[in-house]
Every structure is written in C-alpha cells, then in structure tokens.
Amino acid sequence: MIKFTKNSITDLEKTYVLDALDNKVISGDGKYTLKVYDKFRELFNINDMLLTTSGTSALEMAALLCDLRQGDEVIVPSFTFSSTVNAFMLRGARPVFCDVEPGTMNIDADLIEGLITPKTKAIFPIDYAGVPCDMDKINDIAARYNLLVVDDAAQAVGSKYKGKPCGTLTPLACYSFHETKNYIMGEGGALVLNDSSYRLRAEIIREKGTNRSQVLAGVVDKYTWHAVGSSYLPSDVLAAVLFAQMERYDEIMQKRLAIWNTYYDALKVLEDKGDVKLPRIPQYATHNGHMFNVLLPTTDKRKELIDIYKQNEIAAYICYVPLHSAPVGLSLGYTAEMLPVTTSHADRLLRLPLYTDLALSDVERICDIMIKNF
C-alpha cells in the first residue's frame, strides 16, 4: 500500500522527546522551544516567532493582532483550507474571495485591487503547495490602500520568494507543523512577527490574555488579565519533535525535492502531449516540494484515475473543495461561477502521494500507471 502521506520519525525525535520529558518545563516555552527559535534564526534569519498549538492558532492570533472586527472585509483566495478564513470570521470579518492564477493556484494579485472597498482591512494570501505568491505586487497594493497582509505560509517552510524565505515577507506570517507538512510536531504551528511592534500583544494573546511572559522574563512580579486571548502555547515535548525535524532540514528538503522532480520528469511526457498540466514554479520562486498536483482534462478523468490507483493500493485524492462553493461560502452569496479559474481547476486537480520517505521506485510506479491510462 502506498499511503498518501506519512510522517518521518527517527531515533533523533524519540531521543529529544524523552529528554524533554525529563526537563523541569514540559508545558511550553521550555528548552526545546528555545532551540527551535534558534534554528529558525539560523536557517531563515527569523528573529521573532512564537510557536503555537497549530497553524490555525497562529492565524487566529494574527486576526486578533489585526484588530479585525464585525463588518470588516478580508481578501483571500477561495482555494485554501477553512482555517485561513475561520480565523478572521471568528472576529466577525467577512471573506471576499479572489480567483487564483491557473499555474500556481495562488491568489491572482492582478485581481486584488478590484475587490477593495472601504470595508477592506486585510489581505490573507496563501502560499499554495509551498509555492510563494507574488508578494511584491501584494505588498505594493497593501501599502497604497493601507491594508494589512498576513501570509498564510502554512505549507511553505523553506520556500523562497526572490531569495527571501516565505514567512518573512509580511508583517505577520503563519506556519503549520501538522503531521501532513514537511516539518512536523504532530499538531503545531508558529506566528512569525516581522514587525516587532506586535510582540507584546502577541505574547499576551498567546498566554490566555495575560502578561505571564513578562513574569517569566522578570519584568513584573505577577501577571494579570490584559486582553482577550486564548491558550495557544504548545507543549515543549512537541517542540522537541520539531527541533529534531529542523535538525534534519536538509535531509528532508532534499528527499522531498527528489520525489517532486521525479514526478515532474516522468509525467512531462503527458504534458508535452497536451494530456495534463503540471505545476508551474514562477521564476521568482523556489519551492520546498510540499505536494505534487496534476491538472487533468476533466473531472471524470480524475475520478477514473483515483479509482485505478485505489485498485492498485495507491492513495491519491482531490485537493480542496473551494470555500466559495462550500456550504458556508454559498450562504455568503457566492456561486461556483463567480471564481471560474478556482472552480475549473479544483474540479480537475489530482494530488499524488508525497512524503519524505516515499521510495522513488514507488513514485515511478505511480507515474507509469498514469501514463498507461491516457
């Protein structure tokens, strides 16, 4: 059986977890949390980030930091996971869905300006499949209209835009370390604070609305309730898993890119014949091999291939049901026709297995099956 996704856990992760359990602090912000921060500083020059209980938690913190409120509007692609939109809808803000680029499935920056109204407060782009959005265009629009930008870089740890790491290009950015991502801690995420003015408020929000972090730093002798917040602080035991993963950064990156490139090279014959379209990586981008999608000619062809793979004990799936055509999106007044590229491509995209320890021989088998069925 070739699984769709599978975590890569070695003796290193197990060793660090056991060590974390022997430490005085296992609840959060302990030894391994600090080690993770040091690693992200070393790898990506990120000097200020906070681990969270999930990528969803990081997005919720970002929405609070943006002061999003009832009646505000946020421009966001529909082709994303519900967490991106839930984060600001919980604050009363409304999503304004933007169509995507056909090659990357990222938000189409050329369409954003036409969606701005006096109610628009923020843009939440998503670096889909680990491929960065066109952040210069997005940041330029945001600057001209005084909008906040929160980069949902959940899938893009290690990817770069014009040589700069995803997650460092906007005032606030969010990572996910869910077990389906490249680098994992089971459940977990991080809020990256590229604007230091958010730091104190972020600490308070993360610590249930209290200034506990100032007590731990010795700044005050007791902590009190200062703002609305929640419990967004992950266990240091989980941070131990992530630290091991980040120590394996190069190994994991190289393996995933080798798998991605094997898919691309083998299936290029189908693209050359006009049967499928493969992912497009813009010249400004380097990606992290997070996922591999194939755009098929019809929805029926996708169903046919999923069934064939299932018969061969291979797990392959669709990507997202676009949010604008999901029940909540429909209740907001959207129809499938409003975002034609998103709808057309979502109906035909097939996501193939990709995880760190997937054998290249299995990748070749997956490709052979697809090629033989065209």
Question: What's this entry about, in short?
Answer:
By secondary structure, the protein is an alpha/beta fold.
Major sheet description: 7 strands, mixed
Assign the CATH architecture of the largest domain: 3-Layer(aba) Sandwich
Amount of helix: 25-40%
Secondary-structure-based class equals alpha/beta
What does this protein structure show overall?
This protein has two domains: 11-247, Aspartate Aminotransferase, domain 2 (3-Layer(aba) Sandwich), CATH 3.40.640.10; 249-372, Aspartate Aminotransferase, domain 1 (Alpha-Beta Complex), CATH 3.90.1150. It is built from 14 helices and twelve strands. The protein has helices at residues 11-21, 31-44, 55-65, 82-89, 109-112, 135-145, 199-206, 212-216, 236-247, 249-272, 299-311, 327-331, 340-346, 360-372, and strands at 49-52, 73-77, 94-98, 120-123, 148-152, 160-161, 164-165, 172-176, 189-193, 285-286, 292-295, 349-352. Helix 2 (31-44) runs parallel beside helix 9 (236-247), helix 3 (55-65) runs parallel beside helix 4 (82-89) and helix 3 (55-65) packs across helix 7. The radius of gyration is 21 Å and the shape is globular. The model has no long low-confidence stretch (mean pLDDT 95).
